[in-house]
């Protein structure tokens, strides 16, 4: 019998994976070194998701996973597109070594902690995050513009942002 709560698979030739409306899915340990596109939507049992070590992943979409509280994107050197909409419970987002990501526009307003580390091609960040308390941005060598509306921000750590021209952290309210 197939265990619908946990998926553990080795699929080295898988290029495109879409998982939709799987409310009992709790974990997704997946060995898919050729994966280029991953779409997760309406997986309401997923509370934490760590997406790590997919050297060919170019597009990631995590949409409508209402219970997701923590999302870690680690060592995704070819990730160019990242969509994270409809995540009302997401509090922690960590992007580490997503070096091909150039822009982020839509981030969940529920975020309390956001971290970009070694996102070297990231050029622009513009976000209104009313619940954000901690932000870390390091090693973003091409970051030119950083605009943030975060009235609850208590900790800001910006390091190694060599190209930063504009830093705008005004409270728009």
Provide a brief overview of the structure.
By secondary structure, the protein is an all-beta fold. The chain has no helices and 16 strands.
Query: What sort of overall outline do the alpha carbons produce when their principal axes are compared?
Result: globular
Largest sheet, described in full? 6 strands, parallel
User: What structural class results from the helix and strand content?
Assistant: mainly beta
User: Into which percentage range does the β-strand content fall?
Assistant: 35-45%
Oligomeric description of these chains: single chain
- Mean pLDDT figure: 88
Overview of this protein structure:
The protein has strands at residues 9-10, 16-20, 30-31, 37-41, 48-52, 59-63, 70-74, 81-83, 92-96, 103-104, 113-117, 124-128, 134-138, 145-149, 155-159, 166-168. It has two domains: 1-67 and 77-87, no CATH class; 91-173. The chain has 173 residues and is mostly beta strands. It is globular and about 45 Å long. Strands 5-7-9-11-13-15 form a six-stranded parallel sheet, with no helix packed on it. It has no helices and 16 strands. It starts with 8 loop residues before the first strand and ends in a 5-residue tail after the last strand.
């Amino acid at each position: 019998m197939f265990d619908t709560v946990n998926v553990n698979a080795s699929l080295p030739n898988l290029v495109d994976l879409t998982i939709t409306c799987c409310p009992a899915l709790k974990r997704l340990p997946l060995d898919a070194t050729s994966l280029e596109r991953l779409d997760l939507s309406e997986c309401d049992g997923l509370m934490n998701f760590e997406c790590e070590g997919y050297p060919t992943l170019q597009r990631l979409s995590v949409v409508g996973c209402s219970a997701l509280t923590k999302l870690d994107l680690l060592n995704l050197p070819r990730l160019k597109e990242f969509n994270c909409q409809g995540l009302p419970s997401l509090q922690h987002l960590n992007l580490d070594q997503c070096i091909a990501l150039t822009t982020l526009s839509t981030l969940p307003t529920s975020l309390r902690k956001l971290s970009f580390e070694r996102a070297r091609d990231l050029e622009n960040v513009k976000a209104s995050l009313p619940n954000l308390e901690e932000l870390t941005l390091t090693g973003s060598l091409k970051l030119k513009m950083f605009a943030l509306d975060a009235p609850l921000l208590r900790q800001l750590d910006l390091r190694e942002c060599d190209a930063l021209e504009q830093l705008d952290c005004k409270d728009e309210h």
